[in-house]
Design goal:
18% of the residues lie in helices and 57% in strands. It has a 17-stranded mixed sheet that branches. It has 369 residues and is an alpha+beta fold.
Amino acid sequence: MGLDAYQTHAFHALELCMKTKNKPLIVFASVAGLLLLIIILAPPIASMLISSTLYDAGADEVSIGDIDFNPLVGTARIHKLVVRKDGKRVISLGHGFINLRITSLFKKQIEIDQIVLKNGYAAILESEEGKFGLRGIEFSSETTAETEQTSSTPSEWTFGLHEIDIESVDVRLDAIKTSTIIQADKLVLNKVYTWDKDGISELQAQGRFNQGRFTLNTRLSPLADLPRVTGDLKLDAINLADIHPWIQEYLEGLGGLVSLDSKINIERQSETEWLLNLDPDLQLNKLYVSTQGFNFDSEAINFSGRVNFAIDVDETSPDINATGNIRASSIHVTSPEAITLAQLGSASIQDINLTLPIDISASQISLND
């Protein structure tokens, strides 16, 4: 029903009120006219508030193709939102939808049935202080002593999300060290409720990290006192050169493609301790590693087995234990002066048991020129 139709019905209702002396009909017509007026005015008011907020945050241009907001049933839709700063796109959203259960508000619950985000984009920039935020857009975060005291007081309100569905959303991350494109082809998270903190949520995601692909299927308890994540992780042709800028203080050079198919288990053991367990089938192709002491490259390396990480956030490095089998081909080790230190056609290590700090054993090692 278009806007003109709503206005026509509202005017007819008001006309009936003026002509009739039937009080129930007058009340009904008045309420109907008020509800229609709310439905008519809600979308333009919502559009104005969104635009005003974004302009106040620093946007130079905000355009909204269409917006539909019905506060009576708790639904809102937005189409073709584009936000620009200095002529560059910062945020865009082809389609957004949210459905809130209005009746839950009477129980002091914010219960969302569904959030949908499709065909979106966000440009994230790292500042000189090392903080990440939308490029050129900064929302006010002023706090007072009163608001700080209020935020520290436990709220009687609870929150629940039945499902969030994200499709075709790209995030460009411009950090000081490097730039990265993360594409979420599909991401679904469901069953997150603050009134059931030990409940199990489900997260499925698939997309791209620059040119490589990833797939994640997990069950998790994100709100529990001791959170846990279990599931499957797959990586396909992730370029290690994209990761190198983050660890270049440890390695002078890093390259190659990594593929992984692994079960994962992440558990929080205490306030500072975490456990990470992997059962990986790991494939490294055209691996290249450069340090101050040597350069290493291999055409292909495969590891299958189990890897355990014990992480204490108060410690400088984790305890790592790896067991399994390693196969490698076309190994070449040189000095920084390009002098060959070792060269092998292939290598195989069976039943390796590696613990860091260094403790290593194996049942069989085979080396071939």
